[in-house]
């Protein structure tokens, strides 16, 4: 009995520590996201906790929801406006990734993101559909509590929804790629140099085009195509994270292509860019990975077929070989 009790205590302690780690990760990532707040110190164009919460649910299941709820509550209770609206907003922040996770599980989503259907599911079910809950509930609560004017509902809702969706599209693929990453043993020096050049080039070009008065945001796309073709998700996800963070910082200060616009127009430009880089990298890397896997399967099938034909030809040769048994004489008279 003592052994069973100690085992239960150990299991409960491990689960409690995991929930605390989830809450802490949610809180810390939320504080980072709030550095670029645009509305009332509370609504940001990039909300990393949604991506973290969704990945946590993918890896450890629905039992992690209390950690997500605790982290969401701790973040929002510091922002106000009062306890009841805070509880409602925290509930929306918890329900959104839960619903996104359930939708993804319904369609057989695989965390390897090695199929086109997985990438499409993450975009349309995990990000765009699932995050409608948190944006609608959160903005509605702010208006109902008097913390936000009614005419500001749609601009605030657009920032909230796209911010939560970008958290999924940017953070979730990065964490999933990080989870499946393996240190490449024996990789040539040129391969490492290419990876460093890719990350550095993405950062440099994004910083340049987001601080230029000329519309040159499209120059980032070739780097994402390069990353997807050469490194698949392991290279595309970090490039998307770098490009999105730099663009969001430029959008928050209103530099380059984001200057001289109101909140809604600024959000349209910013999230159009973020959506383009995320979709390009995510979908293309999934297509390339799926193509490579199909080619490997075809090669393996051809090898098996060649071996089978070789064995068949060998057996046929043995059957056709003339018998060496001598013929006996006929002694009949």
Automatic annotation (TrEMBL):
Task: Report the leader peptide range.
Answer: none
Keyword Hydrolase belongs to the record: no
Matches recorded under InterPro entries: MASE1
Stretches of the chain forming a coiled coil according to its record: 288-315
**MASE1 domain spans which residues?**
19-291
**What is the designated name of this protein?**
MASE1 domain-containing protein
The principal location of this protein is membrane
Report the Pfam families cross-referenced here.
MASE1
Superkingdom per UniProt? Bacteria
Q: Which residues cross the membrane?
A: 46-63, 83-104, 116-137, 157-177, 189-210, 216-233, 240-258, 264-288
Localization, UniProt:
Cell membrane
Its membrane topology:
Multi-pass membrane protein
Q: Name one GO cellular component term.
A: plasma membrane
Q: What does the UniProt keyword field contain?
A: Cell membrane, Coiled coil, Membrane, Transmembrane, Transmembrane helix
């Amino acid at each position: 009995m003592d052994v069973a009790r100690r085992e239960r205590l150990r299991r409960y302690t491990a689960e409690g520590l995991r929930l605390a780690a989830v809450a802490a990760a949610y809180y810390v990532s939320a504080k980072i996201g709030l550095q670029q707040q645009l509305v009332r110190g509370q609504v940001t164009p990039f909300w990393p906790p949604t991506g973290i919460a969704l990945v946590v649910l993918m890896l450890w299941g629905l039992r992690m929801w209390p950690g997500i709820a605790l982290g969401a509550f701790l973040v929002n209770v510091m922002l106000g406006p009062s306890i009841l609206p805070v509880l409602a907003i925290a509930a929306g922040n918890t329900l959104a990734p839960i619903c996104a996770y359930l939708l993804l599980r319904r369609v057989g989503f695989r965390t390897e993101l090695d199929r086109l259907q997985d990438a499409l599911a993450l975009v349309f079910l995990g990000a765009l559909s699932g995050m409608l809950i948190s944006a609608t509930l959160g903005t509605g609560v702010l208006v109902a509590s008097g913390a936000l004017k009614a005419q500001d509902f749609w601009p605030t809702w657009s920032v909230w929804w796209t911010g939560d969706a970008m958290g999924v599209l940017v953070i979730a693929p990065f964490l999933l790629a990080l989870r499946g990453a393996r240190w490449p043993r024996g990789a040539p020096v040129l391969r490492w140099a290419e990876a460093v050049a890719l990350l550095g080039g993405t950062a440099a070009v994004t910083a340049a085009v987001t601080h230029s008065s000329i519309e040159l945001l499209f120059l980032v796309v070739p780097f994402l195509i390069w990353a997807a073709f050469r490194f698949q998700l392991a290279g595309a996800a970090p490039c998307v994270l770098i490009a999105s963070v730099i663009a969001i910082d430029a959008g928050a200060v209103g530099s380059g292509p984001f200057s001289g616009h109101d909140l809604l127009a600024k959000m349209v430009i910013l999230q159009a860019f973020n959506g383009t880089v995320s979709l390009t990298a995510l979908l293309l890397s999934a297509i390339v990975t799926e193509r490579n896997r199909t080619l490997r399967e075809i090669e393996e099938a051809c090898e098996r077929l060649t071996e089978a034909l070789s064995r068949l030809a060998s057996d046929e040769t043995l059957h056709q070989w003339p018998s060496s048994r001598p013929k006996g004489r006929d002694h009949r008279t």
